[in-house]
Design brief:
Two copies of one chain form a homodimer. Chain A is an alpha/beta fold. The first copy, chain A, has three domains: 163 residues, Rossmann fold (3-Layer(aba) Sandwich), CATH 3.40.50; 38 residues; 85 residues, Alpha-Beta Plaits (2-Layer Sandwich). In chain A, 45% of the residues lie in helices and 19% in strands. In chain A, helix 3 packs parallel to helix 4, helix 6 crosses helix 9 and helix 9 runs antiparallel to helix 10. At the A-B interface, helix 2, helix 6, helix 7, helix 8 and helix 9 of A face helix 2, helix 6, helix 7, helix 8 and helix 9 of B.
Chain lengths: 378, 378
Amino acid sequence: MRTMAVIGTGLIGTSVALAACGRGVTVYLSDRTEAAARTAEALGAGVAATPAQPVDLAVIAVPPSQVCAVLIEAQERGLARCYTDVASVKAAPERAALSRAPAPDRYIGGHPLAGRERSGPLAARAELFLDRNWVLTPSALTSDETFDRALELVELCGAVPVVMRSQEHDAAVAVTSHVPHLMASLIAARLREGPPALSLVAGQGLRDATRIAGGDSRLWGDILRSNAPAVAGVLKDLHTDLSRLVPALDALAEPGGGDGDHGMRTLVDLLDRGISGLAGIPGTGRAASAGGHRVRVGVPDRPGELARLLAAVTELGVVAEDAAVDAGVDTGADGGSGLAARFTVPPPVAERMVAELRADGWEAVREHGAARLPSLRE
Amino acid sequence: MRTMAVIGTGLIGTSVALAACGRGVTVYLSDRTEAAARTAEALGAGVAATPAQPVDLAVIAVPPSQVCAVLIEAQERGLARCYTDVASVKAAPERAALSRAPAPDRYIGGHPLAGRERSGPLAARAELFLDRNWVLTPSALTSDETFDRALELVELCGAVPVVMRSQEHDAAVAVTSHVPHLMASLIAARLREGPPALSLVAGQGLRDATRIAGGDSRLWGDILRSNAPAVAGVLKDLHTDLSRLVPALDALAEPGGGDGDHGMRTLVDLLDRGISGLAGIPGTGRAASAGGHRVRVGVPDRPGELARLLAAVTELGVVAEDAAVDAGVDTGADGGSGLAARFTVPPPVAERMVAELRADGWEAVREHGAARLPSLRE
């Protein structure tokens, strides 16, 4: 790929342009706001100009509802040989392109799973997509050349291509992104009405849980509208969940009992289902430690010895996501009874960890076989 | 304070003990699970033993529903001169203590706003409470000596004391912590039932939004039950919010319109209320930049110049939470027309930033007067 056009120089468009420029591609920038295109140019993301010849690929980086109109306009003036977009909704733009675009075979939908709470070109970074998934949703008409160009784009941004149907994509992001965004907004909106003490008891947990609510409301309104059927379905499920949860809390709130036991079971069952749902999110510690190997280390029964071991483990650069302690075990060396610490670590690390801890005087052994997924409450 | 007892050596109890030990206090550790107390001892958090004399302060670090029973037992055997706890619900334990404890004047409720998703003594850290708020909820009976001892505890953990009534605390944490936890659990639980594509489109936003759902489900069940009246109230409000939101999404999902405009207004209004709610959470960038000063820097109209400016600003160690660009302005030096970048920075930083950028050849000026809270969409 030698030439590219980026239409829409917001966060994602400018980041794509920066990545492409960094790999030697000539990038032409445009935006309906002149200042945005010139800002992207001043950031070194390309030139704010119209190409004289058709470019290899045009990347349409506008809100989902505008993708098809921009595609039609660009195809009519022959801007590029191939076209893709980066919107986070895929079925509606695809449907529109198939029925209205001059050359639907030269279009493929795309969605890089990357973003920031800040929007606009100033927040852009060339490395925004590094190692992130980038979904491509070829339609029945998408040509091989168009598919290949999109794969090339994903590769030069350092992302990982993932291919699925547009409907499948939209159903999935409704659960993982669109509905969580709405719930974060609902929680954050409640903060406006609370007592003044709220800000004194707001901690990191709340900041994390509501961070996504900070996104641009016009863009998010557009996204949610474009995926409204899937979002409405998941919202209804959540509404039903909440309809069951409220009576459980009411029962627990009743002085002197009521049906408190049933309420408590409902509550703990939900919390447990939440914990097991987290295991499905890649990159969380718990999921990462599944399939890890166990290393067991004897700890002499003296104050501070376990702290000394944890420091030694940290010094080895080992990230042990799960660690647990057994009391009253035979620690080997002196035949005494002390503690044993068990660490779950990635398999390649286990052997080295044992060797280095032993060299340091610790009684370390590797427990063979992959560990079960450890109890999430450990 | 010279001696302390910590009852319950989980994450919080062991962290308190580590902080106290680090400040030279003699700490006696106990836990109903022997391994936990011995693990804390092995971490250097004190000695797993019963004190021979009453200690200065006993810190009860057990789930909220058990605070009062543990307090009564400890007061009956004369464990300490003063007592506090660290549970995240305050009204129910206080009520129980006032009606049932042998010496309610020697008890004060406490709640450090600190935690981790991991639980147990192995996750403990002496610096867990550093600069965090630590709520104290003296009752009408709490003695001055008890209040003073608790303040001393907060101080030696490096935390910031905040005093409020127990009911006020519980109403606030229902909104900022307990209900967000339940919503995170509901979202995470939905991930179990989704299509296989879910894990391919799960990004950092989802990880952040659901992280709190990873907490110990038995402890959280206990917390939610102990604060059930306040939690039920907020949950009902959210249920009502959701009952309004579902028809809005339904209207947007209807092919060909329906009442889509009204649906869109409802949606964007919610998103905007969410954004303004975030401003109430301390430590978020948006809130921090309110009252900042503006620095305006001319950017020559050549590709890459803005990138060079942003790099220079970063090199100065300046964290500019809000930056914006104007196009087509007079940039001064060469009389040409280029871009101007505006940064909102903390007042003490503005003067130094201007001086150092000028020394570097940039046309930087400080815009006087505190900036308005910038538009959150900028």
